[in-house]
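Hey all, quick one. A colleague (J.T.) asked me to put the adenosine-5'-triphosphate job into the tracker so the inputs and the structure tokens live in one place instead of scattered across chat threads. No bug as far as I know, just bookkeeping. Sequence used:
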Amino acid sequence: SIAMRQDILDLIERLPKEVQNLLEAVSETAEEEECSVYIVGGFVRDLLLSVPTQDLDFVVEGSGGQFAQALMRRIPDGKLTQHIKFGTAQIIFPDGSHLDIASTRWEHYSFPGALPQVEESCLRDDLFRRDFTINSMAICLNTERFGELVDYYGGKQDLQQRKIRFLHNISFIDDPTRMLRAIRFAERYHFDFAKETLDALHTAIETGVLSKLSVERFTEEVLLIFREVNYLAMGQILVESGLFKAWFGKELAWNFNLDDAENSKDWSINMRWLVSVSQMESAEIGTLLERVILNRSLRDETIAYVQLRESLMERLTISEMDRLLNKAPKEVVIVLARDERFKVRILECLEAGQRINMSLDGKALLQMGLKQGPEIGEILDRVRMAWLEGRISTSEEEQGMARQWVNTQR
Ligand code: ATP
């Protein structure tokens, strides 16, 4: 309706200037190329909800590749990458943000969880391929129709009624990651599931479609959850709904830890992940690592976490502990310092470490007459240990101790 179009124009006017300029550039390119162009998906949803959004996804009725090249002439600081096989193009800006362009297409799934095959088709089909009604709306950007909402599947009504609804009841069979996405969006916006969608979720869990899902896609979706402000509640629902059990099997008791909901706001993704695995046995974390695909830093930190935790179970001297804590990634130490079993000892060790005020170094030992060799490192270690254990507490004492050792070495 006309009124609706005016509402959308008003909302667009409130967007950051750079975004408005981009929409303008896309609109002008569409005139030049004589094709229809739409902004789709998350952008439209977030625009109507008046919440900020990052991703810009466009659908071109025609060749996406050709459109992208024409658009590039208007945004010279972008870098264009084309994925011909998928009929998509991406323009990346110097600040790391990007926009995606798809040509209208239809995707077939030869088996659940498989990669889609692409064929040319129309906007309606492109939108039907999407996960939820609230993500299946488009806004036309051609000059004559600028700001016109395209809503074939009732997305606007579901936004108003705050419902997460699949476009059709076997949607999750086409792509089981949509079950995880449903929980993520529901919790992010505090929406409910439509009844049919909830039924479908239960069916999906009972019939075990999740086992068809690729490890990569499952992990990707799980990690997206850790980026959300509300990730603890989402994790809790994944556990309670039986979704994790359906994917990992019974042996894995992955649980999210709710104790720190308040403090976790500023935590990195890696720390949130480590806390979420912290209630699992080391062997279970090992099994988990076999079943997910993490990036290098997250995998390394998870392994470092398990190793340090195992070591801390042993009786350690403060110097042994100091050595281990210094070697481990900082985030791992912070997460372990929340663990009741280790808290006191870790804090004691860190405090002792802060009292160290070493002025001695290798050069000073050479000047005292020691020869180049492994003894230098050994003596430095022993002096550090003496500081830690409180046997020395001034640089005079430090000097005296070093001199004594140097003399016995000569
Ligand atoms: P976010 O705010 O988390 O980025 P988004 O809606 O932009 O949310 P993306 O993952 O960037 O989410 O996906 C962009 C759009 O692509 C979605 O709005 C949705 O229409 C569609 N989409 C993404 N993943 C799927 C999927 N698994 N099945 C169907 N459609 C999907």
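Adding what we noticed when we looked at it: The chain has four domains: 1-160, 162-247, 251-353, 362-409. Residues 105-109 have pLDDT under 50 and may be disordered.
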